[in-house]
């Protein structure tokens, strides 16, 4: 990709592409040099990101993981990287050696590691969802804005040009005004709707359980939480909605500028139906309906989320789609002139329906959004001083998308309709929601 392709800025849909007066002077390295990177989470998804960024030629300087066994491959691959269990110690010892921090821990420790890194002036790539709570998402945005660091959330569909074309097609008005959105997922693929385990097996010798718990309320170790099924437990994960909402809802939210509801300080109403919530684990299935008001001169609409095997009703589907033909996950935008349908989670592909109505349609070249060099490369180029700001940065988009997604969990956990005051960041008429919006951290941990 040529440099000039990145210089163009766009303000459509609430996105701003940063052009620094002298971007190279802001950092200790020069453009096109290798970035010195530290990883909070070196196994699992973190191990994959270690491979992606090192494969792009960047330096792996430090690796942090509470689980020696899961991080073993990364440790072996980069024997010269400094190794830590506690990211706070890693930052203390390597702050002058690193440019970038990549965070890919369980959801409940995303914010505390990312905020600490940004306060040190480090660029941050953080996995989705950006945070465990709405309050943390708002703080992440605030710190990123204050520190003027490069940021990116790990919802990789954002870096795919097919997603960007879908967004531009909706913006162009081809399917008319969107009044309904339906998004469904094959999650959870881990157990949900469970009671807390009563057994207290010993902590494996390769795991620092206290550090794994981090800022969450302490509880005894159990294999039901680590290494994967933590997503279904309320204290640590964000359930099916939190896991995939930042992926599957991403294109519809961007295309319909739903994040502008928060930018403009308007109210969002959310209601949830589900299989039952016990305060410990997310439901086995849920249907969450969001009501968005007019924003950015666009009409009000509803967005409905389905998980646990639930799917949109047959009467909302266009000609050519039927329930038995729907994939396990996807998104459907219902416009006044037609439909945009995207199978899967990332909007890597999509089509306009009914097919006969849009026969021969060719999507226009990207002009309202820039061509993407790839999700991870977009972040790296920005960190090196190129005149581009990642599309899923914390300030303009990622924190807003995460807030929208997590409002669904708030409705599930409260067991009632949520009327969300986006200007003040609170549930109207329900002070009991405050600890769920921003929970107190365990002693010894602070943002």
List the keywords.
447 residues; alpha/beta; Rossmann fold; Dihydrodipicolinate Reductase, domain 2; nine-stranded mixed beta sheet; six-stranded parallel beta sheet; 14 helices; 15 strands; 17% strand; globular
Mean pLDDT equals 93
Strand order of the largest sheet: 13-12-11-7-10-9-8-14-15
Q: Distance between the terminal alpha carbons, to the nearest Å?
A: 38 Å
Domains (count): 2
Low-confidence region ranges? 1-14, 16-28
Radius of gyration over alpha carbons? 21 Å
- Based on the structure, what is the oligomeric state of the protein chains? single chain
CATH T-level topology of the largest domain: Dihydrodipicolinate Reductase, domain 2
The percentage helix is 25-40%
Sequence-ordered SSE layout with sheet pairings:
Blueprint: H1 4-7, E1 36-40, H2 45-55, E2 59-64, H3 72-77, E3 82-84, H4 87-94, E4 100-103, H5 110-119, E5 123-126, H6 134-147, E6 151-153, H7 161-172, E7 178-184, H8 209-213, H9 239-248, H10 250-255, H11 260-263, E8 267-274, E9 286-292, E10 301-307, E11 330-335, E12 339-343, E13 351-353, H12 375-383, H13 394-414, E14 418-421, E15 426-427, H14 434-437
Parallel strand pairs: 1-2, 1-4, 2-3, 4-5, 5-6, 7-10
Antiparallel strand pairs: 7-11, 8-9, 8-14, 9-10, 11-12, 12-13, 14-15
